[in-house]
Write a structure and sequence with these properties.
coiled coil, mainly alpha, elongated, TnpC-like
Length: 192
């Protein structure tokens, strides 16, 4: 082997070692960026690995490593986005089901109330048909009179309650006074 060919072989070997070192730094940079949850871009990987962007584009092995890392990052990002989307969708789905159940309950309540209103309106119409217009006025007047009478009776009842309470109090006082007088009478009878 000649000196020129051995130098060339040495230069090629050195170039291969440098390429392997750069590839190792690239893989290490990609791992670091993944751990840090950084964005995987050609420029970011090149800066972290301390290699040129040109090397990443020109070297087929480096280009493959970067392309796979970026694709994996996008698919992981897509999965995370999809998971988040599914969680949000599940939340909205649950809200929709709850709203639908509440709407059903509300519609049932409204239907029941409408039925009750209809029945009451029917009863009102029946009552109006049974009672002529003049009788309605008479019933209203009588109702007002009865209300006043009830109020008057309530006042009288309160007055009687107060009088009863006073009478009971007087009765207790009289019983106590009688008991005191009986004691005095006994004392006087026992004295010679």
């Amino acid at each position: 082997m000649t000196a020129g060919s051995s130098q060339t072989a040495a230069a090629v070997a050195a170039r291969r070692r440098q390429t392997q070192e750069k590839l190792a730094r690239i893989e290490k940079a990609i791992s670091q960026l993944r751990r840090e949850r950084g964005r995987l871009t050609v420029r970011g990987i090149a800066e972290r690995a301390d290699v040129s962007s040109t090397f990443l584009y020109e070297n087929a092995e480096a280009r493959t490593i970067v392309r796979q890392a970026v694709a994996a990052s996008k698919s992981r990002h897509d999965r995370l986005t999809e998971d988040k989307h599914e969680q949000i969708e599940a939340s909205w789905r649950e809200r929709a089901l709850n709203a639908e159940a509440a709407l059903t309950r509300t519609q049932q309540t409204v239907f029941a109330q409408r039925q009750q209103i209809g029945e009451l309106m029917g009863q009102l119409r029946d009552a109006e048909q049974m009672v002529p217009g003049e009788s309605v006025q008479a019933l209203t007047t009588e109702n007002t009179t009865l209300k006043r009478r009830v109020q008057q009776l309530a006042r009288e009842h309160r007055s009687l309650q107060e009088r009863l309470e006073g009478a009971r109090s007087n009765n207790r006082f009289a019983e106590k006074r009688i008991a005191d007088l009986e004691v005095q009478l006994l004392e006087l009878q026992q004295k010679p």
